[in-house]
Design a protein that fits this description.
The complex is a heterodimer of chains A (371) and B (98).
Chain A (H helix, E strand, L loop, with lengths): L2 E8 L2 E7 L6 E7 L4 E7 L7 E7 L3 E7 L7 E2 L12 E3 L5 E3 L4 E7 L7 E6 L2 E5 L7 E2 L20 E7 L7 E6 L2 E5 L7 E2 L20 E6 L7 E5 L3 E4 L7 E2 L12 E3 L7 E3 L17 E4 L7 E3 L17 E3 L7 E4 L5 E4 L7 E4 L5 E9 L1
Chain B lengths: L1 E4 L2 H7 L5 E3 L7 H11 L19 E5 L2 E2 L11 H4 L5 E5 L5
Parallel strand pairs in B: 1-5
Antiparallel strand pairs in B: 1-2, 3-4, 3-5
The chains are: A mainly beta (371), B alpha+beta (98).
Chain lengths: 371, 98
């Protein structure tokens, strides 16, 4: 099939939305695993039929599902996420030591070169890898063990490792982000790690420019420029031109620089998208107007994109993993809301329309561009 | 032969739509029943007990013969009525909203 396949994770199941290259008419399939929280689904870049999904509930724990036929059928694979060695402690909300406890998989990042290799970011924050298609998982424990782990503290949503970026030009380089510890980078394939939070300032922590402790919400990269990273922090939109060694704020004229999601145009590495949210206590768009903001200058100068989006009485949120772009000639942009809408723009954000309006709260959106 | 009743989500995962009949080796206990269940339905592994600690998940309960057996030790023998198949062993997802 030529076109796009949108993988949507929600609070109550997963949905697969498909369309041809025009992205006008859509087929909606699902729910898969109705009633389960599906934090994330993602397809292999080298085998689009290979999909992974994170399925969990508070009742029955974590499962990982795998499809080898583009989502037509699924089978559970390995779900044992055992921390490596002595588990140790991180800080609890009250500052006391708290043992690491596995809660769920937030994000699955299939390898850029091998469909059987996939990384998993989990809560409590750690990075796992499978090299056998998800059957077994091993922790890349150098991350938790590099030194600052005992000082990490959960944010309100839990201490989650939610962002994983593998450099397309240097597979040894991995960038991850944790709420609320910050961003970390490995330059040796995940063996050793160091924090890369210089330039971040966060008012909600005792030392506003501390080496770790920042509530980073999401990080995005354009494949053609792996050293350029864009970040939506709790507050502040940030940019790095040196693979995270230093960051500068590029919030510019945004109506609010609080938000969760951020993404980059598929063909224009200086075109960035965010969805401003009012504040950390009001998780809905400013003025009840759902606006995507686009910068064509790599930040600082932002324009509201409103055509087709509700401009009154809209009080939904757009979560960190709930935006994606396709790589068709005219870049498609997608995002899902906690109100259950999934919107598509087939013209790089100039206009939008809902694909579906009434799904459960959307946790994640990924898109596959199918040849 | 032990009769086991699963909650709806676990029935779906196991691919069954009715009560399960299990042959359990040795003295039937909670641990032996769940071991046998996971062996027959690998998709259920880790869904009833935490895979790291082997403890019952906090929102899972075990009922039989109108009693809550959730706090029994895992190697406590199951009631005779369960062992003989007269009564089923219920695995329950705790009631909660949302």
């Amino acid at each position: 099939m030529s076109g796009v396949r949108v993988l949507v994770g929600t609070r109550k199941g997963a949905f697969i939305l498909t369309s041809d290259r025009k992205r006008k008419d859509w087929k909606v399939s699902g729910p898969l695993w109705g009633g389960w929280e599906i934090y994330h689904l993602k397809g292999s870049p080298v085998d689009p039929n290979r999909l992974y999904a994170s399925q969990s509930t508070s009742w029955f724990g974590q499962l990982i599902q795998r499809s080898d036929d583009g989502g037509a059928t699924w089978n559970p694979v390995g779900n044992q996420f055992q921390y490596d060695g002595v588990t140790g402690t991180h800080q609890w909300y009250d500052g006391t030591p708290h043992p690491w406890e596995f809660a769920r998989v937030w994000h699955l990042e299939p390898s850029l070169s091998d469909p059987d290799t996939v990384l998993a970011g989990v809560e409590d924050a750690a990075l796992f890898q499978s090299s056998d298609g998800g059957l077994s998982w091993q922790e890349l424990s150098g991350l938790r063990g590099h030194g600052s782990g005992p000082f990490w503290q959960p944010g309100a949503g839990g201490m989650c490792l939610h962002t994983i970026i593998v450099s397309p030009t240097n597979p040894q380089r991995i960038v991850i982000a944790i709420s609320s510890a910050g961003v970390f980078r490995s330059d040796d394939g995940g063996v050793s790690w160091h924090p890369i939070n210089r330039g971040l300032h966060s008012e909600g922590i005792p030392d506003s420019d501390a080496e770790v402790g920042h509530c980073v919400h999401h990080v995005a990269m354009h494949a053609s420029r792996p050293d350029v990273l864009f970040m939506q922090k709790h507050w502040d939109v940030m940019r790095s031109d040196d693979a995270g060694d230093s960051w500068v704020e590029v919030s510019g004229n945004l109506p609010s620089d609080f938000g969760f999601t951020i993404d980059v145009h598929a063909h224009e590495p200086e075109t960035v998208y965010v969805v401003p949210i009012t504040s950390d206590s009001e998780h809905f768009p400013p003025e009840g107007k759902l606006r995507v903001y686009r910068s064509r200058t790599g930040g600082n100068e932002w324009e509201p994109l409103t055509k087709g989006l509700p401009q009154a009485n809209c009080y939904v949120d757009v979560l960190r993993d709930a935006m994606a772009v396709d790589s068709l000639d005219e870049c498609g942009v997608y995002f899902g809301t906690t109100g259950g809408q999934v919107y598509v723009s087939a013209d790089a954000g100039d206009s939008w329309k809902p694909i579906v309006r009434d799904l459960p709260a959307v946790l994640s959106v990924e898109v596959q561009t199918l040849a | 032969m032990i009769r086991v009743v699963l909650p709806a989500h676990l029935k779906t995962l196991a691919g069954v739509n009715r009560e399960i009949e299990l042959d359990v080796e040795g003295v039937p206990t909670q641990r032996a029943v769940i071991d046998a269940l996971e062996a027959r339905f690998p998709a259920l592994t880790g869904t009833i007990r935490d895979p790291a600690t082997q403890r019952r998940r906090v929102f899972v309960r075990f009922f039989a013969c109108e009693d809550d057996l959730s706090h029994e030790l895992p190697d406590t023998p199951l009631p005779d009525a369960v062992v003989t198949g007269a009564e089923p062993f219920f695995i329950i997802g705790a009631m909660a909203g949302g």
